[in-house]
Automatic annotation (TrEMBL):
Organism (species): Sinomonas atrocyanea
Protein name from the UniProt record: Amino acid acetyltransferase
InterPro entries: Acyl_CoA_acyltransferase, GNAT_dom
Highest taxon above the source species: Bacteria
GO molecular function terms noted in the UniProt entry: acyltransferase activity, transferring groups other than amino-acyl groups
Keyword Transferase: yes
Pfam families: Acetyltransf_3
Keyword terms of this UniProt record: Transferase
All residue ranges annotated as the N-acetyltransferase domain in the record: 14-153
Length: 197
């Protein structure tokens, strides 16, 4: 059985569905909400590049290194963004959660926190992961703060790690949650989400 089999993960606020080209138009609409591709420190696709980005993620899925999802908000059934398991390492039972973006109108709604709860729960409880990584640009303070609120711990900074589309160099901040920390992280996320009623 492959390490990353496609799966649908359902929560109260959001459902993570296996990504397909059927999501393209909804994702194009979602990415226009906030024009997230304009943030120079992110790699969010433009609407006209969405089909190619979906194909890229599906090719990595077929190669066994990624499991991409579309995020669908429960309250109105709208697709609000994308997320993935990536850099899968079956031998060492590790994955990274990343390549995530959500429509601006979904920010602060709890959908991202619940997505992380669903992904972390599946990683630790179904896949038997020993660690789950998160990586982000040093300059993406919003993402860093969100990762830290999860309870992930910073492992370090990979300096001049990646070349960005605009030619600048990305310093990548690496975080992780290890299996022994998962119960604490789960409790924290459930408490945060419980406050939303």
């Amino acid at each position: 059985m492959p390490f990353l089999d496609p799966v649908t993960l359902r929560g109260r606020l959001v459902t993570l569905e296996p990504l397909s080209q059927d999501h393209r138009e909804e994702l194009e609409d979602a990415v226009r909400d906030g024009e997230l591709w304009r943030l120079w420190y992110t790699s969010v696709p433009r609407p006209e590049g969405m089909a190619a980005e979906i194909e890229r993620r599906l090719a990595l899925r077929d190669a066994g290194s990624m499991l991409p999802f579309a995020a669908r908000r429960t309250s109105d059934g709208r697709v609000i963004g994308m997320t993935t398991y990536m850099n899968a390492d079956a031998a060492n039972r590790r994955v990274e959660i990343g390549s995530t973006w959500n429509a601006a109108s979904a920010h602060g709604s709890g959908t991202n926190a619940e997505s992380k709860l669903l992904l972390l729960g599946h990683a630790f409880e179904a896949l038997g992961c020993i660690a789950v990584e998160f990586r982000t640009h040093w300059m993406n303070r919003q993402s860093r703060a969100a990762i830290e609120r999860l309870g992930a711990k910073q492992d370090g900074v990979l300096r001049s790690h990646q070349l960005m589309p605009d030619g600048s160099l990305r310093d990548t901040v690496v975080y992780s949650v290890i299996a022994s920390e998962w119960p604490m992280v789960r409790n924290g996320l459930e408490l945060r989400l419980g406050r939303r009623g």
